[in-house]
Design brief:
By secondary structure, the chain is mainly α. Helices cover 79% and strands 0% of the residues. Helix 3 (105-136) runs antiparallel to helix 4 (141-165) and helix 4 runs antiparallel to helix 5. The longest helix has 48 residues, at 33-80. The chain crosses the membrane at residues 6-26, 33-53, 59-79, 109-134, 146-165, 172-189.
Length: 192
Protein backbone atom coordinates (compact mmCIF):
# COMPACT_ATOMS: atom_id res chain seq x y z
CA UNK A 1 0.00 0.00 0.00
CA UNK A 2 2.86 2.40 0.75
CA UNK A 3 4.41 1.83 -2.69
CA UNK A 4 1.02 2.52 -4.28
CA UNK A 5 0.67 5.81 -2.38
CA UNK A 6 4.20 6.88 -3.27
CA UNK A 7 3.70 6.03 -6.95
CA UNK A 8 0.33 7.82 -7.14
CA UNK A 9 1.67 10.83 -5.25
CA UNK A 10 4.70 11.01 -7.50
CA UNK A 11 2.53 10.71 -10.60
CA UNK A 12 0.14 13.42 -9.44
CA UNK A 13 3.01 15.73 -8.48
CA UNK A 14 4.76 15.16 -11.82
CA UNK A 15 1.59 15.90 -13.78
CA UNK A 16 0.89 19.06 -11.78
CA UNK A 17 4.52 20.16 -12.21
CA UNK A 18 4.23 19.50 -15.95
CA UNK A 19 1.22 21.79 -16.18
CA UNK A 20 3.09 24.47 -14.21
CA UNK A 21 6.12 24.20 -16.51
CA UNK A 22 3.90 24.47 -19.59
CA UNK A 23 2.22 27.55 -18.17
CA UNK A 24 5.62 29.07 -17.46
CA UNK A 25 6.75 28.32 -21.01
CA UNK A 26 3.61 29.70 -22.62
CA UNK A 27 3.74 32.88 -20.52
CA UNK A 28 7.07 33.90 -22.05
CA UNK A 29 7.34 36.33 -24.93
CA UNK A 30 8.75 33.47 -27.04
CA UNK A 31 7.80 29.93 -26.18
CA UNK A 32 10.63 27.66 -25.20
CA UNK A 33 10.77 24.31 -26.99
CA UNK A 34 12.88 22.92 -24.14
CA UNK A 35 10.40 23.95 -21.43
CA UNK A 36 7.52 22.65 -23.55
CA UNK A 37 9.27 19.29 -23.87
CA UNK A 38 9.99 19.16 -20.12
CA UNK A 39 6.36 20.00 -19.31
CA UNK A 40 4.92 17.36 -21.61
CA UNK A 41 7.44 14.78 -20.43
CA UNK A 42 6.48 15.47 -16.80
CA UNK A 43 2.82 14.98 -17.67
CA UNK A 44 3.67 11.76 -19.52
CA UNK A 45 5.74 10.54 -16.56
CA UNK A 46 2.88 11.35 -14.19
CA UNK A 47 0.37 9.46 -16.31
CA UNK A 48 2.78 6.54 -16.60
CA UNK A 49 3.23 6.45 -12.83
CA UNK A 50 -0.54 6.47 -12.39
CA UNK A 51 -0.86 3.61 -14.89
CA UNK A 52 1.77 1.54 -13.07
CA UNK A 53 0.19 2.24 -9.68
CA UNK A 54 -3.47 1.63 -10.47
CA UNK A 55 -4.07 1.09 -14.18
CA UNK A 56 -6.84 3.13 -15.77
CA UNK A 57 -7.96 4.36 -12.36
CA UNK A 58 -4.49 5.77 -11.70
CA UNK A 59 -4.44 7.48 -15.10
CA UNK A 60 -7.83 9.04 -14.33
CA UNK A 61 -6.70 10.31 -10.91
CA UNK A 62 -3.48 11.80 -12.31
CA UNK A 63 -5.40 13.39 -15.20
CA UNK A 64 -7.85 14.97 -12.75
CA UNK A 65 -4.95 16.43 -10.77
CA UNK A 66 -3.39 17.81 -13.97
CA UNK A 67 -6.70 19.27 -15.16
CA UNK A 68 -7.39 20.75 -11.73
CA UNK A 69 -3.99 22.42 -11.73
CA UNK A 70 -4.64 23.80 -15.22
CA UNK A 71 -8.07 25.08 -14.16
CA UNK A 72 -6.61 26.89 -11.15
CA UNK A 73 -3.92 28.48 -13.33
CA UNK A 74 -6.44 29.53 -15.96
CA UNK A 75 -8.79 30.92 -13.32
CA UNK A 76 -5.97 32.95 -11.81
CA UNK A 77 -4.97 34.26 -15.24
CA UNK A 78 -8.56 35.21 -16.03
CA UNK A 79 -8.95 37.11 -12.77
CA UNK A 80 -5.64 38.96 -12.97
CA UNK A 81 -5.39 39.76 -16.69
CA UNK A 82 -6.33 43.25 -17.86
CA UNK A 83 -9.55 43.56 -19.87
CA UNK A 84 -9.25 43.59 -23.64
CA UNK A 85 -9.36 46.86 -25.52
CA UNK A 86 -11.57 45.72 -28.38
CA UNK A 87 -15.30 46.30 -28.28
CA UNK A 88 -17.66 43.34 -28.56
CA UNK A 89 -19.08 42.67 -31.99
CA UNK A 90 -22.37 44.33 -32.89
CA UNK A 91 -23.23 41.49 -35.23
CA UNK A 92 -26.23 39.36 -34.33
CA UNK A 93 -26.79 35.83 -35.53
CA UNK A 94 -30.52 36.25 -36.25
CA UNK A 95 -31.41 35.27 -32.71
CA UNK A 96 -34.36 37.64 -32.60
CA UNK A 97 -36.05 39.55 -35.41
CA UNK A 98 -35.69 43.30 -35.68
CA UNK A 99 -38.38 45.69 -34.54
CA UNK A 100 -41.59 45.28 -36.46
CA UNK A 101 -40.55 41.97 -38.05
CA UNK A 102 -42.57 38.78 -37.41
CA UNK A 103 -41.29 36.40 -34.72
CA UNK A 104 -41.75 33.21 -36.79
CA UNK A 105 -42.65 31.29 -33.64
CA UNK A 106 -44.08 28.41 -35.65
CA UNK A 107 -40.79 27.87 -37.47
CA UNK A 108 -38.84 28.12 -34.23
CA UNK A 109 -41.07 25.60 -32.44
CA UNK A 110 -40.97 23.22 -35.42
CA UNK A 111 -37.17 23.45 -35.56
CA UNK A 112 -36.98 22.66 -31.85
CA UNK A 113 -39.37 19.72 -32.15
CA UNK A 114 -37.42 18.26 -35.08
CA UNK A 115 -33.96 18.83 -33.59
CA UNK A 116 -34.62 17.67 -30.04
CA UNK A 117 -37.40 15.07 -29.58
CA UNK A 118 -37.54 14.15 -33.28
CA UNK A 119 -33.81 13.52 -33.56
CA UNK A 120 -33.85 11.67 -30.24
CA UNK A 121 -36.68 9.37 -31.35
CA UNK A 122 -34.96 8.62 -34.65
CA UNK A 123 -31.64 7.94 -32.87
CA UNK A 124 -33.44 5.73 -30.34
CA UNK A 125 -35.01 3.62 -33.09
CA UNK A 126 -31.64 3.20 -34.82
CA UNK A 127 -29.95 2.28 -31.52
CA UNK A 128 -32.66 -0.26 -30.69
CA UNK A 129 -32.43 -1.77 -34.18
CA UNK A 130 -28.65 -2.03 -33.80
CA UNK A 131 -29.19 -3.72 -30.43
CA UNK A 132 -31.60 -6.19 -32.03
CA UNK A 133 -29.13 -6.82 -34.85
CA UNK A 134 -26.36 -7.44 -32.34
CA UNK A 135 -28.56 -9.97 -30.56
CA UNK A 136 -29.32 -11.71 -33.86
CA UNK A 137 -25.59 -11.84 -34.61
CA UNK A 138 -25.06 -13.70 -31.30
CA UNK A 139 -23.25 -10.82 -29.65
CA UNK A 140 -23.04 -10.99 -25.90
CA UNK A 141 -25.93 -9.09 -24.33
CA UNK A 142 -23.61 -6.60 -22.63
CA UNK A 143 -21.92 -5.78 -25.95
CA UNK A 144 -25.28 -5.18 -27.62
CA UNK A 145 -26.35 -2.93 -24.76
CA UNK A 146 -23.07 -1.01 -24.95
CA UNK A 147 -23.57 -0.55 -28.69
CA UNK A 148 -27.06 0.85 -28.17
CA UNK A 149 -25.90 3.11 -25.33
CA UNK A 150 -23.09 4.40 -27.53
CA UNK A 151 -25.26 4.96 -30.61
CA UNK A 152 -28.14 6.80 -28.95
CA UNK A 153 -26.34 9.97 -27.78
CA UNK A 154 -23.92 9.91 -30.71
CA UNK A 155 -26.64 9.71 -33.36
CA UNK A 156 -28.85 12.13 -31.47
CA UNK A 157 -26.09 14.73 -31.63
CA UNK A 158 -25.34 13.99 -35.29
CA UNK A 159 -29.01 14.13 -36.29
CA UNK A 160 -29.62 17.34 -34.33
CA UNK A 161 -26.57 18.98 -35.91
CA UNK A 162 -27.55 17.95 -39.42
CA UNK A 163 -31.15 19.02 -38.89
CA UNK A 164 -30.03 22.49 -37.94
CA UNK A 165 -27.70 22.70 -40.95
CA UNK A 166 -30.03 21.33 -43.65
CA UNK A 167 -32.74 23.14 -45.53
CA UNK A 168 -36.32 22.45 -44.47
CA UNK A 169 -37.05 19.74 -47.10
CA UNK A 170 -34.09 17.59 -46.15
CA UNK A 171 -34.83 17.70 -42.44
CA UNK A 172 -37.82 15.37 -42.45
CA UNK A 173 -36.08 12.96 -44.81
CA UNK A 174 -33.03 12.82 -42.54
CA UNK A 175 -35.21 11.73 -39.62
CA UNK A 176 -37.72 9.61 -41.51
CA UNK A 177 -35.37 7.29 -43.42
CA UNK A 178 -33.33 5.92 -40.49
CA UNK A 179 -36.40 5.85 -38.25
CA UNK A 180 -38.50 3.95 -40.80
CA UNK A 181 -35.76 1.45 -41.60
CA UNK A 182 -35.08 0.86 -37.91
CA UNK A 183 -38.77 0.54 -37.08
CA UNK A 184 -39.12 -2.05 -39.86
CA UNK A 185 -36.18 -4.02 -38.48
CA UNK A 186 -37.67 -3.91 -34.99
CA UNK A 187 -41.16 -4.83 -36.25
CA UNK A 188 -40.11 -7.67 -38.54
CA UNK A 189 -37.17 -8.84 -36.50
CA UNK A 190 -33.51 -8.79 -37.50
CA UNK A 191 -33.77 -12.19 -39.28
CA UNK A 192 -36.21 -10.88 -41.95
Amino acid sequence: MAAFDVMMGTGAAAAAAGVLVLRLSWARARRSAGLNAVGWLLILAGISAGMVAAGAWGVAVVAIIAMGTAAVLLGHAALTSPPGRSRPSERRAHMLPGKGEPLHLGQRVLTFLLAVPGAMLSALLVALAARAGAGAADWHEANGNALALFLLPTLWGVFAFLLLMLRRRGQLLLLALPAAASAAILWLGPQA
